[in-house]
Amino acid sequence: MRLNHELSLDTALSKVPALTLVFWIIKILATTLGETAGDALSMSMNLGYLLSTLIFAGLFLAAVIAQIKASKFHPFLYWTTIIATTTVGTTLADFATRSLGIGYTGGSTLLFALLLASLGVWYKTMGSVSVNTLNSPKAEMFYWVTIMFSQTLGTALGDWTADTAGLGYVGAALIFGALLAVIAIAYYFTQLSRTFLFWSAFILTRPLGAVVGDFLDKPISAGGLALSRYSASASLILVIVACILFFPQRAGKSTAH
After folding, report:
1. CB neighbours (10 Å) of residue 126?
2. Could you read off the pLDDT of 97-126 as tens digits, one per residue?
3. Which residues, in sequence order, are bridge partners of residue 255?
4. Reduced to 3 states, what is the DSSP secondary structure of residue 49?
């Protein structure tokens, strides 16, 4: 009984899901949705990148506050917050690379620096950037800010790979898919840091989703399928909801450090 009590002091259920295959599938779907939904607001509805970013930033802030105030893991709340980071990441990256005129290369470089800075400040403040140590509101805030930067970087990186590097949407998707496969192999067959592998995979799923989203809704002349951004977004939402309902996720472990 005493042992169980001691373990409960060191290990508790987290408010983020366990890292299973379903987690990564939903993550890729959510990042793809972020691209189509972000483009729907900024382009199809002609609200522009700045106004769309402000709208999505408000939704992101509201979702993060709700997530931090929650007492336990709620799948729909968690994935709503993730989707909010992907949509604001899409319009913010487009604003930085297009409206500010720094291009995909400049935008990717700037956002990569911001991501590294976020991870650095988080590590210096909390002593770890592992998702297993999300045991305080401060750690959760660092987690969500870092995710927002990673989603924004992923959008710019996906655009750079598909357009500037000239690989196209399909070529870029194959590149990012192959990199994720390498990370999966490293996870199962090497002793590389699990925290490093997690963030590497988390970051790479975003450009993969970005180029897949662009492939779905960009004009045929640009290498896309020219699907409606609204119908593509609605379809992705339905698939995500189905995954959450039919493949229940358990909360991950949060360990004191």
Report:
1. 18
2. 888 878 888 888 888 999 999 999 999 999
3. 11
4. helix
Structure-block tokens of residue 246: 């039919």
Check residue 160 and report its DSSP letter: I
| Cβ atoms of 228 and 217 closer than 8 Å | yes
Residue 12 in 3-state DSSP?
strand
Fill in the amino acid letter for 232.
A
Domain that holds residue 217: 15-255
- Which of 27, 19, 82 has its CA nearest to residue 56? 82
Closest CA to 89 of 217, 207, 199: 207
Q: How many helices and strands (H and E) does the chain possess?
A: 9, 2
Contact assessment for residue 73 and residue 17, using Cβ atoms and an 8 Å cutoff? yes
Give buried/exposed letters for 230-239 (b at 16+ CB in 10 A, else e). Answer: eebbebbbee
The count of structural domains within the chain is 1
For residue 22, the model assigns a pLDDT of: 94
If DSSP codes are grouped into helix, strand and coil, which group holds residue 229?
helix
DSSP code at position 223: T
pTM assigned to the model = 0.90
Tokens at residue 66, please?
A: 């709700």
- Answer yes or no: are the C-beta atoms of 37 and 214 closer than 8 Å: no
Please report whether residue 249 resides in a domain: yes
Q: Give the containing element (helix H, strand E) for 253.
A: strand 251-255
Residue 114 lies in a domain: yes
Domain assignment of residue 198, yes or no: yes
Q: Is residue 9 part of a domain?
A: no
